[in-house]
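Module 6 notes. Inverse folding takes a fixed backbone as the condition and produces residue identities as the prediction. Think of it as a translation problem where the source language is geometry and the target language is the twenty amino acids. Below is one complete input and output pair. Work through it position by position during the lab.
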């Protein structure tokens, strides 16, 4: 097959060979990310950061330079993924290695007082801390009982109890048990599996829609049902 040569470095590549190289690289990277798990995507800690930098450079070069073969990059990426998995496994087994890779959090604010001496350890400025406070909708440092610098570079804030919002527990109120609504219609299509889990069928749903909003299934953008069989509707915006 004449297009198989796109794996090897060449002086020139045809348009089809460039497309094939990009498709193979995309799915290979997708497969590698799936093996490494969600942790490597959602939390850029030390190992994850190293992998992101290395993989980005390795896979990008053969996608822009026809003189570089794709096979070598895929082999290198495979080795890196294996090393990453070994590193994650060893960090789960050895506490000392885990503490080195993901050190314990340390305070930046304690009892409303900024611990400026820890800023150098976190390598941040007072402006960064104030920015994070604003993102957390905290307008006064004195309201913060504790702020911890986390290993992934985020800051966890804990407000002083007197500034926290009242909860049902504080008011001695027993709330209804939490129940996550389930989607039974999405973009005009029924999720028959969820509907069956509630012991309902399409006829019941159709009658429910007519009684609630005098509408049909195809007009529903989103519909959910809770444990009390209450159906919430969001219809398409008809202009």
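Target side of the pair, the amino acids:
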């Amino acid at each position: 097959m004449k297009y198989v040569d796109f794996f090897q470095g060449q002086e020139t590549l045809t348009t089809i060979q460039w497309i094939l190289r990009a498709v193979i690289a995309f799915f290979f990277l997708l497969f590698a990310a799936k093996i490494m798990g969600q942790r490597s995507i959602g939390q850029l800690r030390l190992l994850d950061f190293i992998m992101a930098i290395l993989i980005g450079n390795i896979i990008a070069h053969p996608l822009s330079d026809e003189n570089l073969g794709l096979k070598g990059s895929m082999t290198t990426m495979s080795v890196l993924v294996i090393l990453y998995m070994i590193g994650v496994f060893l960090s789960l087994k050895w506490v000392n290695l885990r503490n080195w890779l993901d050190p314990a959090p340390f305070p930046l604010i304690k009892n409303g007082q900024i611990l400026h001496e820890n800023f150098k350890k976190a390598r941040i400025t007072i402006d960064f801390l104030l920015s994070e406070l604003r993102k957390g909708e905290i307008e006064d440092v004195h309201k913060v009982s504790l702020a911890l610098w986390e290993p992934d570079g985020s800051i966890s804030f804990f407000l002083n109890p007197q500034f926290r919002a009242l909860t049902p527990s504080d008011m001695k109120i027993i709330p209804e048990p939490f129940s996550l609504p389930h989607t039974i219609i999405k973009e005009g299509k029924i999720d028959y599996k969820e509907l069956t889990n509630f012991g309902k069928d399409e006829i019941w749903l159709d009658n429910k829609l007519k009684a609630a909003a005098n509408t049909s299934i195809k007009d529903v953008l989103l519909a959910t049902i809770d444990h009390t069989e209450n159906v919430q509707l969001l219809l398409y915006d008809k202009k």
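Reference fact for the lab report: The chain is about 45% helix and 15% strand.
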